[in-house]
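Teaching assistant here, posting this on the class forum so everyone can see the example we discussed in section. The complex has two components, and the goal was to see what a joint structure prediction looks like when all of them are supplied at once.
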Amino acid sequence: MTTTRRTLLAGSAAIVAGSIIEAPAVAAAKAVPTTGDPIDPIAHLLRRATFGATPQSLAEARKLGAAKWLDRQLQPATIDDAACDRLLRRLPQAHAAPAAVRAALPKHSYDGFRQLGQAIIARAAWSERQLFETVAGFWANHLHIAAPSSGVWDTRGDFDAQVIRKHTFGRFADMLKDAARHPAMLTYLDQRSSTKAHPNENYARELMELHTVGLVYDESDVQDAARLLTGMTVSKAGNYVYDASKHATGPVDILGFRHANPAADGETAALAFLDHLARHPRTAELLARKLCVRFVADVPPAALVTRLAKIYLDNGTAIVPVLRALFTSPEFAASAGQKVRTPFEDLVAAVRVLGLQPDKDATLGLSALHDILVAAGNAPLRWAPPNGFPDVAAAWASPSAFLMRCNLHLNLAAGWYPKQLTRPADLLTSLVPAMPATYGGLVDALATRLVGTRLPAAHTAAVLSVAGKLPTSAVDKNVAGHAPYLIALVLDSPSFQLR
Amino acid sequence: MKTEPCCPELSRRTVLGAALTGLAGAALSTRMAFAAEGPAYTGDTLVVISLRGGFDGLSAIAPIGDAAYYQARPAIGVPKNLVIGGDGTFGLHPALAPVLPLWTSGKLAAVHAVGQPNPTRSHFAAMEAMENAAPGTSLRSGWLDRMLGLTGATAPLAGVSLGHAMPARLMLGGADDVAMTGIDDFTLAGDGKRPIAAALRAMYADAPATLSAPARSADRALTATNKIKASGYAAAAEYPGTELGAALRDVARLIKSKAGLVTAAVDCGDWDMHEGLGTAVKGQRMFDNLTDLAQALAAFATDLGDGLATVTVLTISEFGRRVQENASRGADHGHGNAMLLLGGGIRGGKVYANWPGLSPGALVAGDLAATTDYRSVIGEILQKRCGFGALDGVFPGVRPSTFGLAAAR
């Protein structure tokens, strides 16, 4: 059977109209009622390049203009982030050096993982360096090391600090080489148990399949790469060490990388191989595609992928020129509405837009946010396999996940849970300082503040139905009691789900 | 979200695929995407328990007649005098005592020396392969999703995975399944006092399919679970206070409420025993895990009573354990495993196997040789108990086993 877009649209229009009748396809093509207003390019940029717009971030971006806002975000050191830094001091193990973790925690403790997960949520919610945090999250998911996972209890936080965050706006080649010399990666992918006599192929395989070129290698590439990488291991003390006695010498030929590999000390050859992989055209394409899936669309525009891959190679694997080109591309501008928020992004965006702040002096609120994400299957770093969380809408399209979003919105709006977060003294007044005369006006104001645009008229009516009001109803003394439900319903709207 | 049928020839997969090319670009409603109510599914309810971490079939169904077993496992081999059932070649681990009556009455069976094609020792790769179950094809769905899709079942709770908010990867794909931590946790906050569900229904009626599909599934499932909750439920058995106990209790509740359950997926983790798998006594990891598993299965069978006649439960695991025990009274990753089958149609009290033996020459890289593809075992169940003819839609290229391990309906 053949399904044309026209028949789909026509069918859909019939249902929009409320009955099964033939409806003109033209009318249907306009019926994209996720928002009530045209797309605002600044709002679109902030939905993608941050974890959710706030009135402050929108005002700043509008004042600077998109290009200057982007420039500023691409230089995070110039952005004051003292409040977030102070908050992170409450999570001392999150990014501690391995020796410090070992000194502070019992062996195989999960406390470091938990603090790291909370630190990632805290930064997403409250750092001013929002683009840096979104891109750091991208890299952490790309060079994914699941946490908790056995063996990296003392090194996972250090990997985040010294590999991911250190190179987030740097060069991928440097990040890849530092990852290959970090005990967390060598442990997670079994490289530490690889020896001359029995090379372990796990890291070699994932290095090519997941981190760089993708599925273009063959088994001989894996075997040669595994041999070449022998010697890169972890000391008894738990640190990276090159152990020449474990290195398998002899020539290798891997995806265009040929090396005699004659020396017992093969580290230089291994690093040259990693450089080769980082600069491989297939790697450029894979990274460009993944960045587009993250920031543009689930099915990315091919021309943009090609352009970004070339920029990546022309700039010696530097990431900033690629990001600048991506966010200023016409494809990006045209992609509004084409990405859906993950449960993590939905939670963080709700916290940000409601103006919820960290606990006064503890981390109980953060801990509760972390627990919510564990239940939702989207807590930072908790994806078990090494391929990282999926970043397409279909992967998160679960009925339970939908209910959890809605329940969470109401809990946050009503202040029921988590109780420890610091809330505006009067949430409704903080969101809508001047009360409109009608309930319709109130929902318009809430939606403009919370999702950036008014809702379509039918959605506004739906939101008001929970209060038994019409858009024309005059605001009355019951408005405070209705407010949490109206706020939650606006956050439940399809518009808020869009990234 | 009314459910009037429209365009029954459209599959949800087609619509989702179209929608993904541009969420805002196409105003697609999923309401149209669901087929009209098809003929009711009349096969067994299939309950799949995934034993995560690499289940040690060589402990659960111990090859007590094989001397090489005791040579390879001097510390952790299950002694002949402790097994509680079996046939002299195989013996049931003593911790399986709660299900011994089911074994004796012929409702519980095991299949041994089972494995996957293209075996790997990586948990993640092996699990992916086990749940996808279509190596060498471009299929990226889970096999339970494919099974559910082929039954044409459209009830709101036809496919359910219990224990997690995210769907089991076994159910990854286009069929309409529901993941829930538990029936009582599947709620919409505040809806008791205010018509929140109705407001959501109105807001998502015209949303793009990627957004409206989960909203609509949630809405249908909420209506169905609210009905189940309202009818009250007292289990006819006492379940253990474990995640598996809670999940199987909810599976029984769904079956007994006649909610149209076709298949349920349940995870049961923590079988990765490199250390302290231990001897066959209480307090050791394998003993205690098997006790939990057996208690939950026994309660499930008791709770269902006569209803077990149209239910088949089976266990799968991504791989087994190495034959040789290691220095930590554990066993490393290996292959060649045992599956458990429970149900009214199972020809139980028996271990089915093309047993290759455990002599060093018979092992494959230190592992029990897998002589039976786990998919062919499930294939026999699909044909005999679930009404499937060919298996290609679920397990491409696989033939069903000919053990005769289930009675044809």
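For the discussion questions: The first helix of chain B runs from residue 12 to 20. The mean pLDDT of chain B is 87. Think about how each of these relates to the inputs above.
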